[in-house]
Each structure stands twice: as structure tokens, then as C-alpha cells.
Amino acid sequence: MTGADLFIVLIAMVGGAIRVSTPFMFVALGECLTEKSGRINLGHEGNLVLGAMVAYAGSYTTGSPWLGVLMAGGAGLVLGALHGWICKLPKVNDIAVGIAFMSFGTGLAFFFGKPYIQPSAPRLEAIPLGDWTGNSSIAQALQVNPLFFVGIALAVFLWWAFRNMRWGLILRMTGDSAASAKAMGVSVDLVRLLATAAGGFLAGVGGAFLSLYYPGSWNEGLSSGQGLMAVALVIFARWDPVRCVFAALLFGAAGAIGPSLQSIGISQGYYFFNAAPYILTLFIMIASARSKSAAREAPGELSIVK
Amino acid sequence: MTAVVSPPVARPISLGPRAMRAVEAMVIPAGALIASALLFSVFLILLGKSPATFFSLIWTGGFGSSFSIQNTLQRSAPLILTGLAFAIPARIGLTLIGAEGALVLGGFTAAAVAIPLVTGGVAPILTLPLMALSAMAVGAVWIGMAGWLRHYRGVNETISSLLLSYIAVAIMNFFVEGLLRDPASANKPSTMPIGDAYRVGSMPGTSVHWGLAAGLVLAVLLWILMTRTTFGFAARMTGGNVRAAKAQGLPVGFLVVACCAIAGACAGLAGFFEVAAVHGQANASLVAGYGFTGILVAFLARQNPLAVVPVAIMFGALAASGGLIQRRMGMPDATVLVLQGIIFVVLLVSETFYGRIPFLQARTTGDRT
């Protein structure tokens, strides 16, 4: 591998990281919001797939990709609200409900998505940030979708809101100790319902990115566990929205290894590189499972870290 | 070590709580199924389809003729095994959803082991057991890892087992697309076909492969293991309360890993039958969702290995009638997925009714929590 090849690979990885990370970022922020309230939603895989389908269908029928994004968020909101409502029933296990919603959301998306596999819908447009360099591979890598920036802005906002806004404090208190939230007169179930629904909305938007930008079409193999990996990513990011962004970028880079090596003609072991993000996630989970700082920063009511 | 532990002594009026629990475990899932059917009917009516046609097609496609019954049983064989793969760890308190990966990896291992043996001309009577054993061993190690990580490193087993699933599929693809690819498999990369002489045949008088018999035998064996042996009692006690089990001196770590390894072996065996009886080679067809339907099967069976069998047959019928529904009603093949999703969600909602149905609760005399 020469220096020029290395440069191309690195640039391709940066571009790939930005592209691949965006859905991770939205699901992770949604999951972070949900988990801060003390509940876990493993069903975001379903939100992601359904969001991708709804966004594509919405963009196809209305002609506006941004309406599609909103509709995807709406679909995620409904799934999240249902999850939140079911989990407040006594004796119902939130992890199991998440698995059920994974399968329900995927089933709905496949069912209603059949007619949208062939037609092509208007996509989200990227902002060409690298054209001034005059280098085509840099220009291509720096085609950044606006949703990426929306995600970053959202992460910073959530980070600030958790610390400084009234609802942020209520949310964190509910997640850390339902008993003290109750003592303060907060309706724990309502807070968790709202947080889960809002988290579902964000996961749906993440799905919209998949079908409307990258890879950019609707098909049944669109999401391969991103929704679930985002759950692990939140644990890795220790429930901090800004760290979620960095974690998502790391995952994006891992996912981009295979395609960027392919761009300089190394296709050996392509399928093995497909496994890289999952292996990375697993190692991150192993590394952070017994970490003291993770234990300190985890919401106290969260079933997954107990 | 565990000799002092014995099942709870029956109380004089013990018919009450225990029988009631059994009644609950029948009535509530049945109610959930009926509720799901109603919800799904609403879904169908909204789409302008007839629920009556749908359910009668399920019946015809699943049990209507001897052909469809055999088709149903054939499809239920892997579901019994993957159902067991969820049910056994669930008894020890683990939510493992990675049976799909163990199935895929087990099937792939069976095919990979077969290649040198088949080309070397080793007799099928030796080859097939070797394939099955290596599939089970690899499955056991794969899911056992998730159990080990859970107990010794505190890694959430639900997520780790699903990640392991994706890694398993990637490993299979890596070899099937590369090193072990049969050049003759043009459009669908596959390993070398094992050949008819090495296939697992059908059970006498049927067209159902031996995987069904294996599933039935394992279901009974695992039921005995979980309900009639010290191992099973210790495992269930660990599932009830890990701290109490540790305080009793039970080997919790061993129990957790062993239950997971049993689960992985079941799923691996399912993979072996998919390769040796159904596909004849390893390829992407192994990723068929049996692992995930198995979760649903086990939930509906309340984690009881014996109850897994009829529930798996029910879902086998659902899968078997999928094609008929597609053709006769013009609905996509994902229809069955939607129905499964609804059943799954309703089933979990129904958990909330345990111990809370008034006429059942009146006689359980505070035995339940």
C-alpha cells in the first residue's frame, strides 16, 4: 500500500464514518433519552426498519424527502409510545417487550414495504463541503447530509438540557430513583412514556437516513442490527449524548473499513470486515461491563446494567 | 453439594396454587392467542381482506391434507430446537436471543466438516454423526460464550448473543464466499453439496426428516433434566434468585454456562438438520429467522420444554401456509411476520394478568407474589 493509497483509504474512512454514523447517532440519542428515564427499549431495530420504510414511502408519495423523515419519526413515535405504555403494566419485562417490538416493527415494514422496493423516491440532498479542495475523492467524502449536523446539534442540546432544563432534571431523577421522583410528585410512568416515545421518534428518523440517503433505497436487508448496536453504544458512551456522537463516529469508521479498502482494490476478506462493527461492539461491551465509571454514571433504575 | 436440596414439600391443600398456576399457564396464553387473532382480523379488515379466508387458509395450508401436515411438521422441527434454545436459558433467568447465530454457525460447521469426509469417501454412518456432533459443539461454544460473558464479566446476554449472531452470519459468509465456495454455485454462493448419499433421509412412511424426531426426543430429555433432576432444580432456583442460589452454595457459574451450552447445542443441531436434510449445503438460506421465531415459541410455551413442541407445530403451520396465503389472497409473505409480531406483543402484555385474574386468584391463597 503506497502513501497515496493510504490517503485514499483514510479519506474514504472519514467519509464513510460520517455517512454510516448518522443512523447510529440518532438511534443512540433516542436510546440515551429513553434510558435516562430508567427504561430500556431494545426495539429500536424495529423502529429503524419501519422508519426507513415509512420515510421511503412518504418521500415517494409526497415528493418531499423531509416529509418522509417526519413521517418516519411519527412511525417511531407510535412504536415508542406503545412500548412505553406496555412497559408500565405490572410484571411486564421491558427487555422482552423490546424484542417483541423488534419483530413487530420489522414485520410491518416488510409487509407495507413490498410495493416500494422497485420505485425510486426523491432522496435527501447532501451538502457538498469538499468541492473547494478540487480533489474528487475528498469532495466525495465530504458530501455530508444535513441530518448529520441535526444529530450533532441535538446531541449538544440534549447534553445541555439534561443538566440545565427542568424536564432534563426530572428525566434524570426518574431514571435514577423512581421513589424519589414519586416523592417529588412526578408521574414516573408519564415521564417514561414521553421519553420512550421521543426516543422512538429519533430512532425512526435514523431509519429515514438509511433509506433516503445511505445506502439510499428501501429493501429488506437495509438495517443489520444497527438499532441494537446503538443500545450497546449508549452503554459505551455512558449515557452522555455528546459521547454518543463520538461513539457513533467510531462505529461508522469500523463499518467503513471494508468499503474503503475496496475503493483501492483490496476486496479480500470483505465479508469479514462486515463483522467488524459487531466485534467492536462486543469488545466495547466486555470492556465497559465491569467499569466503575460506567456503573457510576448508569441510571439507577436501568434493568440492563443491574 | 446439592443433595440437601429437594423440591418443595407438597402441602395438604397443594392442589390449589399449583393447579391454578397450571390453569393460568394454559388460559392466559390461549387468551393472548385469541386476542392476537382478533387484532389481526382488525388489521385484515382495514386492508379489505377477509379474516375468515385468512384463518381457513392457515388451517388448510397447515393441517388440511397429509401433505400439508408433513410440511408443517418439517418446518416445526427447527422451531422445536430453537424454542428449546430460548427456553432452557430462560429457566435460569437469561434472555438469550442468539439462537439464529448458533443455528447458522452449526449448519456451516456441519457442511465444512462434511467436505473432507465426503470427498475422502468416509461412510455416511460415520460422517453424519460427526457432522451433527461438531454442529452441536460449535453451537454450544457460541452460546456458551454469551453465558460465560454474562456470569463472569457482567455483559448483558441479550445484546451479546445477538451480536454473536451477526458475527456468526459474517463468518459463514466469509467462508462461503471465499475459501469454501463451491465454484459451481454461481448465483448463490454455497459450500460443496454433501451429496444424496450423505443426506439425512425422511422418517419411515413420511416425508418429514429426522430433525423432528430429534426435536421431540430432546424436548422430553430436557424436560426431564429441568424438572426431575438436581441440575434442573438448581438451575430453576438460580433463575428465581441468584443470590439465594449462591448462598446455598450452588455452582451458579457452571449452571449458567451449562444451560447456555445446552441451548447452543440445540440450535446447532437445528443447523445440522437444515444442512444435512433440507439444503444439502451451507448458504444464505440458513439465515431463515428460525432463531427468532423460536423466541416466540418459547414465550408462548412458558419456557416449558414439553409445551415447546405443540407451539412449534402451530408456528410451523403458520410458516407452511405462508405460500398459500400469498397466492390466494395476494398478500406479501411478510403477512406471517406481522401476525407473529402481534402475537409476540400481545403475549407479553398478557404477562401482566398472571396472578391477577379474579376467579383464579381467589383460590391461590396468597401463595403468589
Describe it for me?
The complex is a heterodimer of chains A (306) and B (369). Chain A is 73% helix and 1% strand. Chain A has 306 residues and is mostly helical. Chain A has a two-stranded antiparallel ribbon with strand order 1-2. In chain B, 71% of the residues lie in helices and 0% in strands. Chain B is globular. At the A-B interface, helix 4, helix 10, helix 12 and helix 13 of A face helix 6, helix 11 and helix 14 of B.
Strand and helix map with partners:
The complex is a heterodimer of chains A (306) and B (369).
Chain A: H1 3-36, H2 44-62, H3 65-87, H4 94-113, E1 127-128, H5 136-141, E2 143-144, H6 146-164, H7 166-176, H8 178-183, H9 188-212, H10 226-236, H11 241-263, H12 270-274, H13 276-289, H14 292-297
Helix pairs in contact in A: 1-6, 1-9, 1-10, 1-11, 2-3, 2-4, 2-9, 2-10, 3-4, 3-9, 6-7, 6-11, 7-9, 10-11, 10-13, 11-13
Chain B: H1 15-46, H2 51-63, H3 66-91, H4 99-119, H5 124-153, H6 157-177, H7 211-228, H8 230-240, H9 242-247, H10 252-279, H11 290-300, H12 305-320, H13 322-329, H14 335-350, H15 358-361
Helix pairs in contact in B: 1-14, 2-3, 2-12, 2-13, 3-7, 3-10, 3-11, 3-12, 4-5, 4-6, 4-10, 4-11, 5-6, 5-10, 7-8, 7-12, 8-10, 11-12, 11-14
